[in-house]
Design goal:
elongated, three-stranded antiparallel sheet, hpI Integrase, Chain A, mainly alpha, 3 domains, DNA polymerase, domain 1, 16 helices
Length: 403
């Protein structure tokens, strides 16, 4: 028998230290007097990943904290925010930041794209400034409106709209669990920009023809391998991430087509990754290629462009090419090409507008561009506000008709 009359196995486990914390639980809170009315509250906390960490919080600035209760309150609020609630765990005292965290985790589990998750996580960090201490039971339409207006004023309307999406998703979980009767974010009016977004304009036919000539007449475009990717941009209207994710195996020379099978994105902590998936199901598509694009690909196939991943447009070192860096190169290229007010999105708008001008259907445009909804192609990508003399001709025909 070991010490205290216990078997050795039980004695060793008893003397080995404190029992392990449950995930989401904290140990004893210690208050430390730092002087001048400032206290430090600290404890051990086992995070969702199972790792026990020391968490500390001080008395808030300018607050009179005689015995450290304020510091401990700050610590408890912080722990509540670290604790991601599961099904059945949301209450009116659950922090708003915690339900938002759970909502984003669900989006990730459902397979939402890495880029989307990164965008939402960035916005969620920003909105914490105004929601850090707000609990689910305190979420009223007025309070949510104030939070989002503050976001719009500080970070702009786009970031505020992203925050609204996150808050609405988080609080919808509280509604599902019966903690709230209605989602207060749904009562918040739309967040609008002071000025309507201009968006990228489409290239004209003359600009496209001139571009195809100028791309191969300037050493800058050749040296930085810009001419060939931009040529395929013109031919397809692919997204940047899709363009740089095109594999040689996606090219069918006999059928004169390219399959869109993946995209290149930068993942936090991993670097550039080619995902064998597209932005949506509609993004996985096959695009017919014009002759000038096929001629470029045939010629490029005979040149040394080594790639570790089999992509058509690798970096100069043979690795995946960064869409953001390519975007920076395009901003230099557009000045040289005489189209400074355009973006890489202008290629997509050009395709949509040319399809519309030629009398082809919006469905054809949506299929080509990889849009899930035809309305997206019509409302956003097909150029609006143009003069249509054919309408006047139609009225003339009606006015002089003998019928």
């Amino acid at each position: 028998m070991g010490s205290f009359g216990l078997p050795p196995a039980l004695w060793s486990s008893t003397m080995a230290g404190r029992p392990p914390l449950r995930i989401g639980a904290h140990g004893k809170i210690t208050r430390i007097d730092l002087g001048d009315g400032i206290w430090l509250a600290r404890c051990r906390f086992r995070d969702d990943d199972g790792i026990v960490r020391i968490v500390e919080r001080r008395t808030p600035h300018g607050v009179d904290d005689k015995y450290g209760a304020k510091a401990e309150g700050e610590l408890l609020d912080s722990l509540e925010g670290r604790r991601a609630p599961g099904d059945g765990q949301i209450s009116d005292r659950t922090l708003l930041t915690a339900v938002c965290k759970l909502h984003l985790q669900r989006l990730e589990d459902e397979g939402r794209s890495t880029a989307t998750i990164d965008t939402y996580n960035f916005a969620a960090e920003k909105v914490k400034t105004w929601t850090a201490g707000i609990r689910v039971g305190e979420c009223t339409p007025g309070r949510m409106d104030s939070v989002l207006r503050a976001m719009a004023k500080t970070h702009g309307p786009t970031m505020a709209r992203q925050a609204k999406t996150i808050l609405r998703g988080g609080l919808s979980l509280a509604v599902l669990q019966g903690v709230l009767e209605t989602n207060p974010v749904r009562e918040v009016s739309a967040i609008k920009s002071k000025a309507a977004p201009k968006g990228a304009r489409a290239f004209t036919g003359n600009e496209i023809r001139k571009m195809l000539l100028d791309l191969y007449a300037d050493e800058y475009f050749i040296r930085n391998d810009i001419a060939d990717p931009v040529t395929l941009f013109i031919a397809t209207g692919l997204r940047r991430s899709e363009l740089l994710g095109v594999l040689w195996s996606d090219i069918d020379e006999e059928a004169r087509t390219v399959r869109v099978t993946g995209k290149v994105v930068r993942v936090k902590g991993q670097g550039l990754v080619r995902f064998a998936e597209t932005k949506s199901d509609a993004g996985a598509r096959t695009i017919a290629l014009p002759q000038f694009a096929m001629a470029m690909l045939k010629r490029r196939g005979t040149e040394p462009h080594p790639s570790d991943d089999g992509v058509v447009f690798p970096s100069t070192t043979g690795t995946l090419r960064d869409p953001n860096n390519f975007g920076k190169q395009w901003r230099v290229a557009r000045e040289k090409l005489g189209v400074p007010e355009t973006t890489s999105h202008s290629f997509r708008k050009s395709i949509a507008t040319l399809i519309d001008d030629d009398g082809l259907s919006a469905r054809i445009g949506a299929d080509h561009l990889g849009h899930r909804h035809v309305s997206m192609t019509q409302d956003v990508y097909m150029t609006r506000g143009r003069v249509h003399p054919e309408v006047a001709d139609l009225l003339d025909r009606v006015a002089i008709s003998d019928e």
